[in-house]
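Known limitations

Files may contain more than one protein. Parsers should not assume a single record per file. Below, a two-record file is shown to illustrate correct handling: read the sequence, read the token line, then continue until end of file.
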Amino acid sequence: MQNQDQIQKRRIFGIISHPDAGKTTLTEKLLLHGGAIREAGTVKARRNDKFAKSDWMEIEKKRGISVTSSVMQFEYDDKIISIMDTPGHNDFGEDTYRILTSVDNAVMVIDAAKGIETQTKKLFSVCSMRHIPVFTFINKLDRQARDPLELMEELEEVLGLPSVAITWPIGNGITFEGVYDRLENQVHLYRQKKTITLDEKGIYSDMLEGVLDPMNLTNLRNEIDLLDGAGNEFNITKIYNGELSPVFFGSALVDFGVTTFLNHFLKMSKFPGTRKTTTGEVNPTDDFFSGFIFKIQANMNPAHRDRLAFVRICSGTFERGMNVTLSRTGKTLKLSQSTQLMANEREIVDTAIAGDIIGLYDSGTYQIGDTITNSKDKLFFEPLPTFPPELFRRVSPVNSLKGKNFHKGVKQLAQEGTIQIYRNDFNDVILGAVGVLQFEVFEYRLKNEYNTDIRMDNLDYTVARWIKANDSVDLKKHENSRCTLVYDRFDRPVYLFSNMYALNAFEDRVKDLELIEALNVTDEEN
């Protein structure tokens, strides 16, 4: 079996959470333990502090949030780990959903004081739909937190996700003393920064007397007894199938519980497995090379105006300079410029295998969702999801002399999937987004990366529907004050409606057109 031993050393996971739960901070600490960085940055850096390594875009550093997904690879304990740090802000959910199609595992970060929040539910539903193993890290135990049993119960009640505690907190906030590792029978002390390996009596050992606060020790024993008696049993098969979540407690900010989590995660998490195609499956040990593009990012290095296509390798061996076929067009491409990434830093990679993420320099050839392969058979991986926008704005350059820069920026940002682009019969550029922050990022990037100031006008539409119809149908005759016809960047017709009432009225009135909520890039091109 080709590369079998090396494939089993690979781990690809995405980190999901609600904004401010500590996702980017946890990413930083994992990179720090992996030796990928010497000093972790802070998400909201003070004047002399470093910025978070995974937040490479200037707007992210200023606002202290992740607005684009980052890909980082490092080695730890003889494993090669790729982290996808995804945007936490719900305006960028589509980027996160696409990222989750490329991972084998997910780490869900939960604020111990707030529990499960809105964005966490949305992202978990994607993991659940794809049966991705979910590892839960309950964060910020050094601050006042909710009852840990209550948090565990919430996982099952709100998400429908049974869980099993691998580590357990000893106190919280000002009384926080550490965590107990149930599998290793060890107590990791927070302030003393040391580990006690217990004897066969476990938490009832005299070794903890005089070490832990008596109240904390009593609570720990009662809670572990309850978990042992009524909690879910550890079951690795259920974990692999996404039916049981291992739970860990700690604080990413002060780097406590992170190493324990990482060590257990590498033992329990899935290595790269089979990937579905439109006609079957691809096995990572297959002899032919295959991969799909799940992200495109322009101007990661503004000095070079470059563009990278991120590829998840699914089978075979990548070799720099190899020829592959772009399945969507049937064209042969030579992959001569390839890189591996640490946020916006990179190094040339000559070979890579299934379970690796590489970046390919792109001059506009690739689209999100593209399959590349040297297989003799035509191959398409499952289409990546797209989502209908709910906010629309007409956009134009302030200075008409900047028109060339403006259209170049619009085209490239549309290809990235940063925002959805439409045009009408007057060739107006219309932006579609899920949230307002996407417009802000679009404006910021056009100004800073393409030297173009823009003006935006709100449009009174909230619903988009793609149209299935043959070319002979007159689509313009159905336009009115609450419905307008536009075209997406693949020249596919789309109706924009003012609201759901207008859409329902249209469907009642027009029976000969099929309206579709969202089309994938490859829906009409395979």
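...continuing to the second record:
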Amino acid sequence: MITKVLKPSSIQNEEKKTFDPFFLHGGAEGAAAYSHAVQLVSEKLIEAFSDQSKPYVGKAPEDIRHEIQRLELVKENGESLYELLEDIQEPLLKSNINISNPKSIAHLHCPPLLPGLAAEMIISAFNQSMDSWDQSTAATYLEHELIRWLLPKFGFGEVGDGTFTSGGTQSNYMGLLLARDDYCWKRWGHHVQKEGLPEQANRLRILCSEHAHFTVKKSASQLGLGENAVVVIKTDDYHQMCMDDLEEKLGSLEDNGLLPFALVATCGTTDFGSIDPMKEIGQVAEQYGLWFHVDAAYGGALILSHSHYQKLAGIEQADSITVDFHKLFYQPISCGAFLVKDKRSFRYIQHYADYLNPNDDEEDGMLHLVTKSTQTTRRFDALKLMMSLRMIGTKTFGDMIDYTFNLARETADEIHRRPGFRIINRNPALNAVVFRYDPIAGEGLDLNLLNKKIQQMLLESGGAIMAKTSVEGETYLKFTLLNPRTTLDDIKEILTMIEQYGQTYSTEWGMNH
């Protein structure tokens, strides 16, 4: 029976064609097919994750490309799921980065929690869209209530509101979109949504630190202001926004007849995890009448920390906040939120369509979430967070997050103790550690090339996945310690591998010079 269900060519004939086995429904064929599909996929995933010795198989980029190019993408008559999974096992499943491996510590890319994976099954099966009530019904109210739970965690009151998003890029864009339109309306009575950009738009300016996320500039370009509308503020020795330079830049903008309208603080920079002085920045924003947006995509998880939550001081002054759940909340991608202090801010993006969200539906108690989002079709990602909060509990969440912070400090200490290493952020603000291999006997070595090679050699060996970055034009290595299953012993093993690869490359360099 199951074999036939998974082989469409065998269940179709000239007299009658049935498509039931291709869908999940209450009938016997659909239910059996779904159950068997879940079983087969589960077995393959368990097999793929069974080898925890390395986070990556170690294939070169060209090898993977050729394997995918040889993969048959389309079948005229279809095939069984078993046959398909067998075919993609090598080129896809075994060639993926195992983000759950303790030695996969490159990016802000978290191992997903099992409750989140279970929620994904429910989300994909119902395939709801969160734009209109009649597509999402109960899911609409669950997202709404979860937003209500989040708001006070960040110091927002009853008039606040929010929406789930695909992540920090969309959330930062929404913050600056609302900031632009709010400024244009309040200063000139100009309705950007209806009338387009005003003639003074070329004078509008956004301020952020030099370590702010690239999406600030990206958003400025998409908003018709151009990347040059972003004024970059210097950072101090702790990679936080320099308040003196902020005041100086604001004074210069005023002297030149330019119009700052938004000030962006970062709560957890991508490289260093640094947190801008949000309290002081919020006060400056209020003084100058600027929209205050906080990008807490990384650091927003501090709301659950037992010992570091005080680092969020000042975030309650924000007009809007970005927070991602597919980072330190350990949710499957994608899962984020955008919060506003005043729900009326969403009026700048509201649209009504008779076939989707007619205005008078609200009189019947229907809630259409599309009025709060730049997306129309949108997944029920709130379920992942809710199921994780229920099953894991906020106490264990806090324990996991704080463990990674403690591990980052221990890692910084270990790197500092080892000769031949140079660390930048000796006291990590969150759980990112930036350093480079700088051997004492490395005179004449191109250290930028050396560290680039070390990162590449580790990746191609499959021994560890770590990132590289640039600091003042020099190449550095970076650990992003999101995984609470990573131990200090794992870190020591990676550092030893770095030393070995560094020494190998240094020896080869010396022989050739």
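Parsers that stop after the first record will miss the second one. For reference, the second record is described as follows. Residues 1-6, 8-14 have pLDDT under 50 and may be disordered.
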